[in-house]
Amino acid sequence: MIDNAKFQQLKEAIIAGNIPQLALMMISLALDMRASDIHIEPEEKLIRIRYRIDGSLQKIVEYPPNIHPAVISRIKIMSNLKIDEQRIPQDGRCQVTSKDNREMDLRVSTFPTVNGEKVVMRIQDKSRKIPDVTEIGLDGNNYTYLMEGLDSPNGIILTSGPTGSGKTTTLYTCLNKINTEDVNILTIEDPVEIQMDGLSQSQVHHDIQYDFAMGMRAALRQDPDIIMVGEIRDHETVDIAIEASLTGHLVLSTIHTNSAVETLTRIENMDIPEFLVASTIEVIIAQRLVRKLCQSCKQPAPIDTGTDTNASASALRAQIDKALAGGVEAKFPQMDKALLAGKAFFVPKGCDQCNNIGYFGRIAIYEVLRMNNEIRRLILEKAPSVQIEKAAIKLGMITLEQDGLVKCLKGITSLEEVYAVARKVEEYV
Q1: Which residues of 252-287 are buried (b: 16+ CB within 10 A; e: fewer)?
Q2: How confident is the model at residue 281, as a pLDDT?
Q3: Which residue, 66, 213, 229, 283, has fewest beta-carbon neighbours within 10 Å?
Q4: What is the pLDDT of residue 207?
Q5: What number of helices (H) and strands (E) belong to the chain?
Q6: In 212-277, where do the E strands start and end?
Q7: In 7-85, where do the E strands start and end?
Q8: Rama region for 340: left / alpha / beta (φ>0; ψ in -120 to 50; rest)
Q9: pLDDT digits 0-9 by tens, 239-267
């Protein structure tokens, strides 16, 4: 919900041309509305402020172009950027403290456009609580497989997905689970988003050639038990990660791929031999974030409501039936069987609690691949990814589609949200 008092103060600051108050209320309102990003976008005749809330941009207010240079200068001063440089993009950061003493880290990025400089401020809540493994949306075999991987004395655990899909939160949750006094955990991150007690966290600096690969090499000399590296993006980093796992360390990292199985292909494309991939990787997690239905106003609806208009209702029902029949009951042993039988789905409506959007908050849907002898055999035989995926599904892997549909049955999210991020699997064994 929008805080009407703060919203009014923001509008009054714009009318009065009070730039410090404008900047303060813009950030304060964003914090109250749970925004992850603030967008200040110059157009030809006005400047638009939008917040990204639960993954979607929402327009908040507009102000005239004549005060835009002062607003930009204020933000640049806050984040130690060059005020007189408007021709090239700049990156900076600053820290703010909310009235309830929450510490926020603002990562500021400027971008020159034909109408003036655009600014995006990414909000990092440094005081936010790291969720428990059960709170991030892991259920059934997904939870079981990840716990088995975290119990491994060595190996590689990878989480994959596009930017902004919650990969870092999942890694922090895993580290929080295994963070005990008898282990030495080192992280190499860009940037360090949440500071955790018990971890030795290091931030890379590309301008002085301190990158992930250098950090990994240095970490191996620090007598580590567990290493977390922010991202695997090249041959050198994955090579050191494999070396670390082979020498008795547990390595956690992220990688940009579309599915759990495609991660295997991505690593092999980095010129890593199949026998090393098969022997070192323990768990691969693919994930996406979906918006959660507002529990105050969600309502039941037929399957074809709010879904892709290009797909017929009968085709969608057939796809859902196929996905839910693909061993879902065995993959979610704790699930209420009545939910599967009823196949009741919900859609957003909108109310005061959710600002008439119908959604409030986000949750991840997961696909967790647990390495086993059958998958290793297929990797060594250079089997295509489609064949490996079939084998993984047959052996208990929950697909993104299946996990999303189960969350739909539980009334957590909608079919529209799930199929916006999860592909329809053509064949379930």
Answers
A1: bbbbebebbbbbbebbbebebebebbbbbbbbbbbb
A2: 96
A3: 66
A4: 83
A5: 16, 15
A6: 226-229, 250-255
A7: 35-42, 47-53, 56-63
A8: alpha
A9: 999 999 999 999 999 999 999 999 999 99
Fill in the DSSP letter of residue 197: T
- Residue 377: partners with Cβ closer than 8 Å, 6 or more residues away: none
Q: How far apart are CA 308 and CA 315, in angstroms?
A: 11
Specify the pLDDT at position 420: 93
What is the torsional sign of CA 418, 293, 363, 97? positive
Q: What is the pLDDT of residues 347-357, one digit of tens each?
A: 999 898 888 89
Q: What are the structure tokens assigned to 106, written together?
A: 């603002």
72 CB-near residues (< 8 Å, 6+ apart): 40, 110, 116, 117, 119
Closest CA to 47 of 117, 137, 136: 117
Quick one: tokens of 226? 């567990």
Query: 381, exposed or middle or buried, with CB in 10 Å at 0-12, 13-18, 19+?
Result: exposed
Report d(CA 37, CA 271) in Å as an integer: 37
- Give residues with Cβ within 8 angstroms of 319, minimum separation 6: 424
CB-based contacts of 282, cutoff 8 Å, min separation 6: 149, 152, 155, 156, 157, 370, 371
Distance of CA 370 to the CA centre of its chain: 21
Q: Are 199 and 186 in contact (CB under 8 A)?
A: yes
Q: Between the CA of residue 149 and those of 61, 178, 281, 421, what are the distances in Å?
A: 47, 11, 9, 26
Q: What is the pLDDT of residues 348-386, one digit of tens each?
A: 998 988 888 999 999 999 999 999 999 999 999 999 999
How many beta carbons lie within 10 A of that of residue 140, not counting itself? Answer: 22
Q: How far apart are CA 207 and CA 100, in angstroms?
A: 36
Residue of 265, 256, 255 lying closest to 385 (CA atoms): 265
Residue for token pair 């799930």: 418
Residue located via tokens 């991505």: 266
Q: Which amino acid is at 426?
A: E
* Tens digits of residue pLDDT in 387-425: 999 999 999 999 999 999 999 999 999 999 999 999 988
pLDDT digits (tens, 9 = 90+) for 6-17: 889 999 999 999
| Burial class of residue 59 in the structure, from the number of CB atoms within 10 Å of its CB (0-12 exposed, 13-18 middle, 19+ buried) | exposed
Angle at the Cα of 137 from the Cα atoms of 136 and 142, rounded to 5 degrees: 115
Quote the pLDDT of residue 338: 80
Sign of the four-CA dihedral 140, 145, 146, 150: positive
